[in-house]
Amino acid sequence: MPNQPSNLQGKPRFKPQSIRLMNQVREVLRYHHYALRTEEAYTKWILAFIRFNGRKHPGDMGKSEIEAFLSHLAVNKNCAKSTQNQALNAIVFLYKQVLDLPVAEDLAPVRSKKQVRLPVVMSCGEVAEVISQMNSITGMMAKLMYGGGLRLMEVVRLRVQDLDFSNGLLLVRDGKGGKDRSTLLPGSLIKPLQQHLEKIKSIFEEDRASGNANVWLPHALAKKYPGAPSEWNWQYIFPAAKLSKDPRSGKIRRHHLNESSLQKAVRSAVVKTEIPKRITSHTFRHYKIHPCILPFRPA
User: Fold this and answer.
1) pLDDT tens, residue by residue, 168-224
2) Do 73 and 147 reside in the same domain of the chain?
3) Would you give the distance in Å from CA 64 to the centre of its chain?
4) Are both 248 and 170 inside the same structural domain?
5) Residue 292 in domain
6) Which strands, in side-by-side order, build the sheet including 169-172?
7) What is the pLDDT of residues 223-235, one digit of tens each?
8) Which pLDDT score is estimated for 292?
9) What is the dihedral of CA 200, 206, 210, 216, to 10 degrees?
């Protein structure tokens, strides 16, 4: 799940200008710089909460309705604990930040007890076999996930400045929990990445020549550094093939590669290898602790 700003309580409450409730929710989310994915998730849960309670306005509901909805997710929908917590966070945000109404501190819905499954772990040979069925771009992304322990969205959001070739490091910005971290850059990927960047830079130069060199920047960085979106260092390492319109600002930008491309590539490769395991892109982060050296893993 995309990260929430840590200074939410430090900001004065923002009063939305829209009349419709869901437009108010989006206004407040954007004021606090919530990620687009968080906005989509929160609006989905708030709408589900309202529909579950017969489309009553949240201002006319309270503790009993919130508990009934959250219990419904656990009992009837068999949602995971994290899913139930996300729904609760969305409802609390609605009441406190949008409606400026208190939320009961003693909410006691039925808690989800969905069983936690052990992660699927591939052997070194299976990892190599799956990656061999992927193309050069998605294969490189899978190798970065495996060699550096990156999550799906962390690898697709990598920018040029996040590669530290001289020190053999990858910098992960705004990862899980809103934290930055560094991880290993597999030595055998340095040259392929450098060659890849040469190709990407030619696309960037074409965009700049046509006046379309523009990339999304988080939070207020675009205001603080107005020229940064058109600078090479801020460009995505794995950009989309086509320019697209930003759903919020309406500006034409080159976004990063859609994460579904990597997910589909992994799924297709697993089918071809006929490995009898439930392997997803996230599985590349789960590897055996014993020495497991592939050509692209750091020694």
Assistant:
1) 999 998 877 778 899 989 888 999 999 999 999 999 999 999 998 999 987 667 788
2) no
3) 33
4) yes
5) no
6) 163-164, 169-172, 181-184
7) 888 889 999 999 9
8) 43
9) 10
Last residue of a domain, one of 98, 114, 137: 98
In angstroms, rounded to a whole number, what is the distance separating the alpha carbons of residues 224 and 226?
A: 6
CA–CA separation, 154 vs 255, rounded Å?
Answer: 14
- Tell me what the mean pLDDT of segment 108-116 comes to: 80
Residues 143 and 55 in one domain: no
- Domain CATH number, residue 59: 1.10.150.130
What is the C-alpha to C-alpha distance for residues 291 and 299, in angstroms, rounded to an integer?
A: 9
Banded model confidence at residue 71, pLDDT cuts 50, 70, 90 = very high
Q: How far apart are CA 274 and CA 123, in angstroms?
A: 14
Q: What is the pTM of this model?
A: 0.77
Cβ-contact 46, 25 below 8 angstroms: yes
The answer on 133 and 89 residing in a single domain is no
Q: Is the pLDDT of residue 296 over 70?
A: no
Question: Is residue 247, in this structure, part of any structural domain at all?
Answer: yes
For residues 87 and 144, state if they share a domain: no
Extract the tokens encoding 48. 């589900």
Instruction: Look up the domain containing 23 and give its range.
Output: 8-98
Q: Which residues contact 39 (CB under 8 A, 6 or more apart)?
A: 26, 29, 30
d(CA 34, CA 255): 18
Q: How far is CA 188 from CA 121, 184, 194, 265, in A?
A: 23, 12, 11, 22
